[in-house]
Design goal:
The chain is of the alpha/beta class. The protein contains twelve helices and ten strands. The strands form two sheets. The chain has a five-stranded mixed beta sheet with strand order 3-2-1-4-5, with helices on both faces. Strands 8-7-6-9-10 form a five-stranded mixed beta sheet, sandwiched between helices. The chain binds 5'-O-[(R)-(carboxyoxy)(hydroxy)phosphoryl]adenosine and zinc ion (ZN).
Length: 362
């Protein structure tokens, strides 16, 4: 089944309202939960029509991390122009939209409020429903944008800047958390190791690039929690090990690359081994890898090999839809719209919002 067909079948399970019957199923989506301003237009029948992302990386680089107030102000500047250009690129007028979706959480509250205020207001002005989307559900459903979408049920490994989770996905919206991180997330482990090596923000992709130039076995960094049963993660010890290695001897180019490669190997190894354990435990035959760290090529390669050997299939969004984007918010918004989940006339955003609080969609 294609991603659009899966969304179609979700719609059939509920009574359509007059509104849905009289409008083509096309949705505008806004993402502003952190440091990317993004807008997308998605059509249930034709797929993704256009999407744009403005990254605030340059704005925050000077500070070595995201400055929430600067992020909010920049979303205010960028979102409206992005809505205009993305609608134009999708050859879409507001009259042909069935709804407006926006990321309502979790994330930086000020940043979320800019997108929620814009999305809710546009929906009100255009007389269509507003759909509040959970950012992590967006990541989880991003592979529905691909030609070969994952089947349900499946296991999901969600690895981003703020989360490291193994989730049993019985169906869209039905998420059971199997394992979480006790401290730092996988993306944070990449970013903090990168910072210790003097790499500029955002560190994850930079560390991955440097790691590609050296073998990953020179430093034996800890693979925490592997010696214990269960599916929990812990990455804060890695940061300490990397800091000690950085201080132990002068940091020439070869040593920096070896530390980067060894840190990446420790993170990837831990993720792969816990994921295999979760596959065995659940008996699921399909794995979805979602979130920014899912863009890591070594992780993709290792998972591909190990999961194939185990006898399951792996599904990823394309690289550009692993990190934050509005296309994934549009897909999740479309699924929620078809399931009848729309917002009242209020601008609501939640900095914290457990994924398991979501209602199943079918
Ligand atoms: O999903 P995402 O864009 O934002 C959150 O929702 O957190 O994930 C961002 C995280 C950052 O920690 C970033 O360093 C990491 O994903 N990341 C990577 C790579 N690309 C992004 N980490 C390792 N290798 C990459 N290629
Ligand atoms: Zn994200």
């Amino acid at each position: 089944m294609t991603g659009a067909r899966i969304l179609e079948s979700l719609g059939r399970k509920r009574k359509s309202t007059v509104h849905f019957l009289s409008n083509p199923m096309r949705i505008l989506a806004v993402e502003s939960s952190c440091d990317e301003s993004a807008v997308a237009v998605f059509d249930a029948a034709r797929g993704l029509l256009a999407h744009s992302i403005f990254s605030q990386v340059e704005l925050h680089r000077l500070y070595g991390g995201v400055v929430p107030e600067l992020a909010s102000r920049d979303h205010v500047r960028k979102l409206v122009p992005l809505v205009r250009t993305t609608l134009a690129e999708a050859a879409t007028t507001p009259e042909s939209l069935a709804a407006v979706a926006y990321t309502a959480g979790p994330g930086l509250i000020g940043a979320l409020l800019t997108g929620a205020a814009l999305g809710r207001s546009l929906a009100y002005a255009w007389g269509v429903p507003a759909v509040a989307v959970h950012h992590l559900e967006g990541h989880l459903l991003a592979p529905l944008l691909e030609a070969k979408p994952p089947p349900f049920p499946h296991l999901a490994l969600l690895v981003s800047g703020g989360h490291t989770m193994l989730i049993d996905v019985a169906g869209p919206g039905a998420y059971q958390l199997l394992g979480d991180t006790r401290d730092d997330a996988a993306g944070e482990a990449f970013d903090k190791s990168a910072k210790l090596l003097g790499l500029p923000y955002p560190g994850g992709p930079q560390l991955a690039e440097l790691a590609a130039t050296a073998p990953g076995d020179r430093f034996k960094f800890p693979r925490p929690m592997l010696d214990r049963p269960g599916l929990e993660f812990s990455f804060s010890g890695l940061k300490t090990a990397v800091a000690l290695a950085v201080q132990a001897a002068p940091l020439d180019a070869a040593r920096r690359a070896a530390i980067a490669a060894s840190a990446q190997a420790a993170i990837v190894d831990t993720l792969v081994r816990k994921t295999l354990r979760a596959l065995e435990q659940t008996g699921r035959a399909a794995l979805v890898v979602a979130g920014g760290v899912g863009a890591n090529l070594v992780l993709r390669q290792r998972l591909h090999e190990s999961v194939a050997r185990y006898g399951a299939d792996v599904y990823y969004p394309r690289i550009e839809f692993c990190t934050d984007n509005a296309a994934m918010i549009a897909v999740a918004g479309m699924a929620r719209l078809r399931a009848g989940c729309t917002e009242p006339l209020a601008i609501r955003a939640r900095a914290r919002w457990p994924l398991t609080e979501l209602e199943p969609m079918s």
